[in-house]
Amino acid sequence: MNHVLEALKNEKITMVGICGMGGVGKTLMAEEIIKIVQGKLFDAVVMIVVSPNPNIRKIEAEIADKLGLTIDLETEKVRERILIVLDDVWSVLDFEAIGLPFGPSHKGCKVLVTSSNLDVCYEMGSQKNFTLPMLTAEEAWELFQETIGEPLDADPDLCGIAKALTNECGGLPYSVVTIAKALQNNKSKYEWSNALQKLKGHEIPPQAYYSSIKLCYERLENVELKSCFLLCCLFPQGYDIPIDYLVRYAWGQGIIYDRFDSVEAARMRVHVLVVKLKRRFLLLDSSKEGCTKMHGVVHGVAISIASQDMDVFMVQDQAGYRSWQINPPCKQYTTVSLNDVHIDDPIVTGLGYQELKLLQLKNSEISESALESMLKGMKLQVLSFIHTGSTSIRVLLRHLRTLSLDDCTLGDISSVGKLENLEILSFARSNIKVLPREIADLQQLRLLDTTDCSYLKEIPHGILSTLSKLEELYMTRSFNKWEPAEEVDQSKEGEIRMASLAEVMSLPSKNLTVLAIDIPDFKLLPEDEVLLEKETTRFHISICKANTFPMPQPLDYGFKNTVKLAGDAKEFMQMEILDFCLEALSIQNSKHGTESLISDRTGKTAFLQLKSLELNGIPDLLAICHGQLQNQSFGNLRSLQISCCSELRYAFPVSIARNLVQLQSLVVYLCDKMQEIVSNEGMEDEIDASSKVAFPNLTELNLSGVSNLVSFYIANQPCSSKPEMAETSSSNQGNEAGGSSFKKSKILLPPNCISWLKNLEELEVKLSSKIEVLFDLEGQMVQGNTEEIPVSFTQLRKVSLANVTLLAHLWKNVPCRIRCFENLRFLTVLSCDSLHYLFSYSVARQLVGLEELKISYCRTMKTIVALQYKEEIGSTGILFPKLSLRLEDLSSLVSLSDGPKTFSDDADNTFVWPSTRVMYLRRCPKLETLGSLIPRKQKQRKNIPQIQKSGAGPSTRSQPSVSAPFSSSEHTSKKEVSI
Is 523 contained in some domain? Predict the structure, then answer.
């Protein structure tokens, strides 16, 4: 909500959009915003419910009436500050037609739009759009209890059912509130259990959801979008739906076949369709690459729509399947998906589904006789078995265009060669051992997939070369026993000949657009042809004698040009063709004198398209490149991972760092000699070599096992000009104080790097024995009398530190007048034995968003929050309003907050932790008080949190840990914690 308010305050922004799926809380947020801005930010606020079929004249009259204007709107009111809220907008509105005072001549008028369609907001000209996320499990639970009107912890049975109910609501506030209100006056666990079962079976989705989602579906502009949406409901609720399954199903059914002449073009179209459905909130993002998801509520409505409009029939379990057998269909279904069923009864012969075009069986078992009898008489175009038991295809399906036998135990599949119209064939992750020779008869085949078929050891010579229409060949982590071309020519009669790469290269280049293969040796590539010079081919090539690469996520079929090398990389890296086409590169275990990734290319452009680079186990690597490259080199790099490169002293020079404006993730692991990430080596004579360096898109920085790392960038670090601050308490060792007099500290992120990392979100540092300071903000001040407040690391959400043995300061030289670390949510500190405390009060009060703080095995830590500056005396306020705290094995910890004894016994400071949700204490033998600074007005109260000590000294090691919820000190009960 704060972001929306900030946008409304911005004079340059005249229209703001709030978007999200139905029930996510768009209208509620708009109403809350009206309460805040009415009479303050705006003189007048009007809220109009537009609805799917807007009546323009009615809206015009309503706006005029609520503003107290005549229809022509020619009054002084127009020149006041006005906010028009247009709720539930389904299509683009003509502001002039509805008489809305908007545009250059009405600068005081702003518009706030709520919509379930992000495209509508963009098309209306909204300059700032905000998508509302679903509630987290914790937020949904809090909302449920708030609606019920009482906590449910006292009844464990009811509490468990209630949590299951909130989980089924899928993070939608409207659903949570609706269910809670329905059960509010009935605390019977049987009623609640019944409601849970109905919710799981989609028997009680709120009618508002059904109507809203159905309307979204009906307003989809073409059959392609509707078909793509309904195909997604064939998969179980919550399933990560591979987008390439949608491509293959749509191609087989002819949904997009007639419009595109290649599978690749169809894939691009399906990806566009998925994006459009996401922008209408009918589909969601998935954590798996190349996949999408469907919300549970949307899934239930989609099945209902599919059953009515597309004649889709879905069965989730065996019980449902039996009822389907006994009750024949009253109409001819075209699409059937069966999940988690067992079929072994041949009475299903023909099924009466002669019009069936698509059949999917997932996580099911089917006998060969049942399968054979079931398929007879069908005119299937798509047949997909996913994780299905022993499977053989014996029935001739002349119309079949897509056949997927993924994750299956295969029997005799030689009859596949008779499927003369087959265009897509997949055995991915199956147990296939020999590719049948009959596949050579599939002259219409466009796509062959044997990804992750680890048992596939034999592809007879001559099969691949006959597939003249083949467009896409996927064989990653599969067959790699390619026969050298010279051995094919010299083979003896009767000897089994394997496929060769020469066969692959003989396929028409105008057709072959995707190639994903494993090659055991670079020398197997044909000498007279360079595989990667086929400009039309998108490739994914692994060159290694054995599969030494870690198992990745399922292959993203929209992958980019990728090469994975294990072993000697020198010869391959000399192919300059890679500089212009390669998008992902992984080099592993190259132990034969690979001193640089790039050499002898001074003045040239290198890796112009490269987006992902992984370097692992290259012990001789001294530098990524030697010589000065052109400015565009590595300009598209998004992800860089460097691990086990024991001689590498820096990740990249300044000359390359200047180009890494797209870099999003940087991971360095087990590089013992690395001293800095960016180096000015070779550019020492340039006065301002680093002035153009910036990483505006870097969000993840992970540095682990870099024992000699000193800094992100060593050059041009200013010596500290501040003498060490005098200490009056043994607990104050200057975590934010000035550094020791006139010497360079070993600072990970020194002042000259702060501006490089403005959007950093996650920082992890582990196993480092040189770093003394994490952040140094010296000099981060706005000069002059300007009212502008400087900001630093406002996007940082997570910091993890472990075994940083010399770390004495997390933050240093933090100016009083600065915004920093305000979005930090998670902070973990483990085995940092030089830390005496974490925060000064000045820093602690910035951390309003801190939710989770974990500190363990820091032997010298004496307090968490300390008074560091004299200006902090008399400071009051609540620290960490959202915090959950976990403290373990802190042998020197005396208190959570430093006392006024540091500066003045009369100080009236407030270091209380009243909103701490959970406090977990374990083996902290010297801890005596949770907060020694209590407001003077509370000192006589008896409800101050206290510690009940259960032991001291060595005996505390055997004492049990305690986890206790903490709430405001306004509560009357006395809190006791045993440690």
Answer: no
Q: Quick one: 149 and 224 in the same domain?
A: no
- Angle at alpha carbon of residue 202, lines to 198 and 205, rounded to 5°: 95
pLDDT tens sequence across 261-279: 899 999 999 999 999 999 9
Q: Does the residue 260 lie in any domain?
A: yes
- 265 and 163 together in one domain: no
| pTM (two decimals) | 0.76
In a domain, 370, yes or no: no
Q: Which one-letter amino acid corresponds to residue 321?
A: Y
Interval 589-600: pLDDT, tens: 887 667 888 766
Contacting residues for 185 by C-beta, under 8 A, at least 6 apart: none
CA dihedral of residues 508, 509, 514, 520 (deg, nearest 10): 80
Contact call for residues 180 and 148 (beta carbons, < 8 A): yes
- For residues 464 and 474, what is the distance between their CA atoms, to the nearest angstrom? 12
Contact, 206 vs 301, CB < 8 A? no
Structure tokens of 761?
């979100």
Count Cβ atoms within 10 A of the Cβ of residue 308 and give its class: 0-12 exposed, 13-18 middle, 19 or more buried.
exposed
Residue in the structure block whose two tokens are 């682990």 = 704
Dihedral of the CA atoms 312, 316, 322, 327 (nearest 10)? Answer: -30
646-681 confidence digits (pLDDT tens): 999 999 999 899 999 999 999 999 999 999 999 988
What is the residue range of 231's domain?
208-310
Could you give the C-alpha distances from 553 to 288, 432, 549, 580, 911, in angstroms and in order? 7, 21, 12, 26, 47
Residue 66: exposed, middle, or buried by beta-carbon count in 10 A (0-12, 13-18, 19+)?
middle
Per-residue pLDDT of 64-105, as tens digits, reads 787 765 444 444 444 578 899 999 998 898 887 777 777 766
Q: Pairing mode, if any, of strands 918-922 and 962-965?
A: antiparallel
Neighbours of 492 (CB within 10 A): 6
Give pLDDT tens digits for 883-933. Answer: 888 999 999 999 888 754 433 444 444 445 666 667 889 999 998 766 544
Output the average pLDDT for the chain.
Answer: 79
- 885-899 residue pLDDT tens: 899 999 999 988 875
Domain count, the chain: 3
Domain closes at, from 286, 310, 334: 310
Cα–Cα nearest to 516, from 486, 560, 485? 560
Average pLDDT over every residue of 720-729? 37
269 with 302, same domain? yes
User: Does 950 reside within a domain?
Assistant: no
Of 10-19, 244-253, 568-577, least confident by mean pLDDT is 568-577
Q: Is 155:34 a contact under the CB 8 Å cutoff?
A: no
Residue 594, number of CB atoms within 10 A of its CB: 21
